[in-house]
Write a structure and sequence with these properties.
This protein is about 20% helix and about 30% strand. It is α+β, with helices and mostly antiparallel strands. It has two domains: about 15-65, no CATH class; about 90-245, Jelly Rolls, CATH 2.60.120. The structure holds fe (ii) ion.
């Protein structure tokens, strides 16, 4: 049994005069994550817990004084071999939130989303994307990369596709993912994302290895193209961003 659980006991020091209380996972005393969310607020044991909490808070604040790039470099840069589960755990430990990334958001302009490269080394890259209301990207793959998408704010509509006999992507399934949710994109997945709400959508992405050779589809023209690495998931308006194009196909002609 947790020695900190239970009702307050007479004679124990009270912390109520300090204006602090713990509710859920956030401490109203200092507005930082409390961790276990358990403990007696009224007894001396709480003071021990609070000392632990203060140490946690100073560590978190120390991390927040680092730049986003440094935090990602510390979380992702030392890992030689990334596996999906360990990569997600590294990102969770990084504790990047909308408060950290807000200054780095890029307006979408004429594109479905504004993209900002946060961190990149030879084997991994991380981006933050800013989706206005109603935005939707084109169906695409990630070349030979896989990765994670973390919904930081808003709600994302995620669609997964399968190519038909003409090589045209058809929706197989679609679902809504809310803030705090994660999407795993395995190698070879053809998908699209969108923001069907009236609010902003912000997503954090990490890909292994860095995406190169991304193929974007235009189902209305039954065409696809491989885009340059600095292009997002949309059909490029500038032909110079097209590396290779597959023209509209007929049955029996099966582009990748
Ligand atoms: Fe994608």
């Amino acid at each position: 049994m947790d020695s900190f659980a239970g009702t307050p006991r007479d004679g124990h020091a009270s912390d109520s005069g300090r204006g602090g209380s713990f509710e859920g996972d956030i401490c109203s005393y200092c507005q930082e994550p409390w961790g276990t969310g358990r403990g007696c607020f009224m007894c001396g044991a709480f003071l021990v817990r609070r000392a632990q909490h203060e140490r946690l808070r100073s560590r978190v604040n120390g991390r927040r004084s680092e730049s986003v790039q440094d935090r990602l470099k510390r979380a992702l840069g030392r890992i030689e071999l990334h596996r999906p589960r360990s990569l997600k755990a590294s990102l969770v430990r990084c504790q990047l939130g909308i408060r950290d990334l807000e200054p780095l958001l890029v307006e979408a302009g004429p594109f479905p989303y504004g993209r900002h490269l946060l961190y990149q080394n030879q084997g991994i890259e991380s981006l933050v994307m800013n989706w206005p209301s109603g935005a939707e990207c084109a169906p695409h793959d990630h070349g030979s990369s896989w990765g994670w998408v973390h919904i930081l704010e808003g709600e994302a509509e995620h669609s997964v596709y399968q190519l038909d006999v003409r090589g045209v992507p058809r929706v197989r399934r679609k679902r809504l993912v809310r803030a705090g949710g994660w999407l795993f994109a395995p190698k070879g997945l053809i998908h699209s994302m969108g923001n069907p709400t009236s609010n902003r959508l912000v997503t954090l992405h990490v890909y292994v290895p860095c995406i190169t050779g991304m193929r974007v589809y235009d189902p209305s023209r039954c065409a696809s193209c491989v885009v340059r690495d600095d292009c997002g998931a949309w059909w490029p308006a500038d032909d110079r961003q097209i590396v290779q194009i597959s023209p509209p196909s007929s049955a029996g002609d099966l582009p990748r």
